[in-house]
Amino acid sequence: MGLFSRFRRNSRQDYDRGGEAGYFPLYESQRAYAGDDEFETSPTPRFSPDYDRWDRRLSSLDTDVERERRRRLPWWRPSKYRGRRKRWWAIRIFTAAVLLFVALIAWLAITAPLSKSLEPIAAPQITLLASDGTPIARSGAMVDEPVEVAQLPPHVIKAFLAIEDRRFYSHWGVDPRGIARAVWTGRGGGSTITQQLAKFTFLTPEQTLTRKAREALIAFWLESWLTKDEILERYLSNAYFGDNQYGLRAASMHYFYRKPENLLPQQAAMLAGLLQAPSRYDPTKHYDRAKRRMDLVVGAMVAEGYLTQAEAAALPAPKLDVRTRDDLPTGTYFADWALPIAREGVEASYSRQTFRTTLDSGLQELAGRVTSKAALGNAQVALVAMRPTGEVVAMVGGKDYASSPFNRATQARRQPGSTFKLFVYLAALEAGWEPDDTIPNTPIDKGSYRPKNSRDNYSPTITLEDALATSSNVAAVRLFNEIGSENVIRTARSLGVTSPLPEGDPSLALGTSSMTLLELTSAYAGVAANSFPVRAHAFPKAEDSWWDWLLTPEDNVSSRAHDDLEQMLRAVINRGTGRAATLPIANYGKTGTTQNNRDALFVGYAGDLVVGVWVGNDDNSPLDGVTGGGLPARIWKDFMRGALSLPLPKPSAAPDPEGPIQPFDIEDGATIPLDENGSRISFDDDGITISTEVEGIPLDFRLDDNGLAVEPADSER
């Protein structure tokens, strides 16, 4: 319709301009011409119909209709392009080729940057050291400095070219003759050295036509921008030679203890033969296979004229000289946690890296010994020991790393149970509550959530200190509701807890929200230092500058609230659920047992150590009578006793354990009377001294690191 509208509009415009008008099939135009007199009296102007122009318009109408129909066709219909001129096709084909070329260059620059071929294809070896310099783990590939073709003997280069790519210096990245030979003989893949460099540098090892096409494309790209020697150097410096050796330099030093510049012909031939199947031909494990493969390489060198038959026959079997054996574990629970952190700051290079960690080799050995001796049955165990600053000094993630490398200290997210009550009571103390304040300890019989106390131990009221010591669930939930979930969550966040904590859920007070043992122990470290949040770290931190200190301020609680909290945590151990963790020095902690005894925990601190212990089953099944105040507390105590070099505990002579003197709650230098005859016991940093009389002779019995000694009593005491 648009076409006819334009036709009528153009005709009317011609008529109005007074020019030669088009033909209008009106009635007046059909009348017979009566002469000039008729138009002299008629208002209609005189004109002559243009029949030729009308014919031309009618003849072009079909063309216009066809053009409009073709324009409306979808782009994928072949009829849309039928009848196009050669020039139209040429312009569009040229434009598409230019755009494709630009896109291809951009894609190669992003996915196959030339600089990447200079980087090792495997992560370089990293060795972790304990804080005292003892190697504890080593992980990563054995890589070494790149080789230079100009520095290598000719027989080394020829050995690799003879077996891997005979026409390397004559093709353009892809060798059609090599491909045809591989198809005809059924042996080999027909890949050139350039294609192999493209494959292990930029692509995955999948065997698909798409990957082969990309491999060929990248090979052309490398050939366009690099010289043949540069391609060969990058290939030899990155190829895998088996036994975790990457690159010719690392392989020659590993198998023959020779630099590649000094390799003998037979040694070079054996190394060249390894590239096809490094694990299958590894000479340290399958020397006979490696020797047969070497003979094949020597035969190829003879066929190419690199060696004469006599020279080949005179080559002896190379003798291995493997001097470096890696006797360090490639992974431990601590190393698996620390290595990814170490690699974050390592740039891609061929150099080996060594990092000193915060791990204490003595404490790590102690942690392994203590947890292995625990009566765990089928249950698993995890232990994290750190300084109040967050330096992790020992880590156990399970009973046996070889059978289960899953780290239950850093990866397992389990419910913390009553150890979470730390945040509830700390939030209450910051809100103005005191340890002697009371709260109802009766059963909760209203609402949808009705927790129960262990063994149905209830009372009309209970102080906050006793509630934490006895781990009263109903008291903790009531206190949680009193101070508000938002305040408890804010306290947990300030102490470094990042795990999800549902707001408004009263069960949160009993530790129903899961987190890792490392996260929980770090929060207790913040309480121990009264400076938080504490971030657990595996590597020593540089001293913060004043600018860092200004940008990352640390938080703390008032000295009153901190002292009150430590008083309550001491009560847990002195007369509460954590009595099994008692030490002869001041120690603080909290037990935790989740519903149906699925998790048992003890987290606490003493001296300069903060330690968290977890016991549970991987399938989350209930433990057989294990609670946080039982096995975890005993593991914690055994570790602390060895870590802090504490003497064995002595039974207290105080008749009233809840009197003014608490058992093992004695300051250094204090003296305690034992009887009415003047016998007394004194404590100091080095040991314990008992002063008494034997048959009227005053004697001192001294127990310290040197053992038990008896000597005359000091008369001045």
UniProtKB/TrEMBL annotation:
Family assignment from sequence similarity: In the N-terminal section; belongs to the glycosyltransferase 51 family.
Enzyme Commission code(s) on record: 2.4.99.28
Domain Glycosyl transferase family: 137-301
Entry-linked InterPro entries: Beta-lactam/transpept-like (IPR012338), Glyco_trans_51 (IPR001264), Glycosyltr_51/Transpeptidase (IPR050396), Lysozyme-like_dom_sf (IPR023346), PBP_transglycosylase (IPR036950), PCN-bd_Tpept (IPR001460)
Pathway the protein takes part in: Cell wall biogenesis; peptidoglycan biosynthesis
Domain Penicillin-binding protein transpeptidase: 384-639
Signal peptide: none
Transmembrane residue ranges: 89-110
Record's keyword annotation contains Protease: yes
Reaction it catalyzes: [GlcNAc-(1->4)-Mur2Ac(oyl-L-Ala-gamma-D-Glu-L-Lys-D-Ala-D-Ala)](n)-di-trans,octa-cis-undecaprenyl diphosphate + beta-D-GlcNAc-(1->4)-Mur2Ac(oyl-L-Ala-gamma-D-Glu-L-Lys-D-Ala-D-Ala)-di-trans,octa-cis-undecaprenyl diphosphate = [GlcNAc-(1->4)-Mur2Ac(oyl-L-Ala-gamma-D-Glu-L-Lys-D-Ala-D-Ala)](n+1)-di-trans,octa-cis-undecaprenyl diphosphate + di-trans,octa-cis-undecaprenyl diphosphate + H(+)
Keywords in alphabetical order: Carboxypeptidase, Glycosyltransferase, Hydrolase, Membrane, Multifunctional enzyme, Protease, Transferase, Transmembrane, Transmembrane helix
Any single Pfam family the record assigns to this protein: Transgly
Identification of the protein by name: peptidoglycan glycosyltransferase
